[in-house]
C-alpha cells in the first residue's frame, strides 16, 4: 500500500505536476468538525484500492507554529490512514486530562479545499481526553510532546470519497523566551516546574498607577489593540496575597483585549507572544475593589472576536472571579 510521507520542516519543491494548497479561512466547526471527519473515516472502507509502484509524497513546509504550506503531487492516492511526527517538541508529554492548545490546518487532498484552519485566528483550547477529542484524534496526540508538529492523512470513505490531510501544532502552555530582570520594588515571582507562578507581595504600599515589567520576553508577534489573546494568568490581591483568579490547573483563557480591565490591557498591548508580563493594577484601572497583581503568559494573539463566555473551543473568563473583567460602572 502507498502511504503519505511528509518532509519535516521542509520546503515545497515546486516540482512540475505538484500543486500548493491555497491559504484558506478559519473553519467554524474547529476540532469538532475534524473529530467528526476522522470518526467517519475510522469505520469505513476506502473507495479505491492503492495502486502499486513508488508512492508520491505529501510535503509540509514551514516552521512550527506558522501556518504550513501543504504540497500534494498530482495523482497522489491514499492507500491507508497514516500519521507522522514532523517536528518533535522538547516540552512535556501530554497526560490525560490536561489542556491542549492546538493550531491546525486540514485540507481535502483531492480538491485542495480547506476543511479547517485556526492559523488565521486563535488556536483552540481543548482537553486531552477521548471525550473531548474523539478516539482518532486522541490516538494522534497520545505520546506527543508540547512543541510537536503532527501529520495525519486519512482515507476517503463511501460517504466522502476524498481523503484529507491534517497538520497540527501542539503549542506551548507557558511563556517561552528570554528571562529578564524585573523592575525594582515589584512583587517577586517564582515558577513551578510546569510554569505556574507564585507571587510574593512586598511589604510596602501598592503603586497608585499601573506598573508593569516583562519577566520573560517572547519572540512571537506583537499584541495590538482590537485583538483577542490566549493567556495563562494568575491575579493576586496586594492587600493579603490571596489568589483572586487563576487559569493554572484549569485551562488557558481566550479573551478579547477590549474586555480586559484597562490597567491589564495597558500592560499587555505591544508585548509579544511568548512573553510573561507582571502588571500591578490599582482599583481605578481594574475591578474597582482591589489592587491586583497579574502575572500573564501570552500564548497567542489573533484578529478574531471572542465573547465574554468564550467561543467554541475557547473558554472565556470566569465572570465570578472579577479579575479579568472590566468594571461595568
TrEMBL record:
TM stretches of this protein: none
Region annotation (Disordered) ranges: 1-21, 306-329
Domain of life: Bacteria
InterPro entries (alphabetical): PPIase_dom_sf
GO MF assignments: peptidyl-prolyl cis-trans isomerase activity
Matches recorded under Gene3D superfamilies: 3.10.50.40
UniProt name for this protein: YfiR family protein
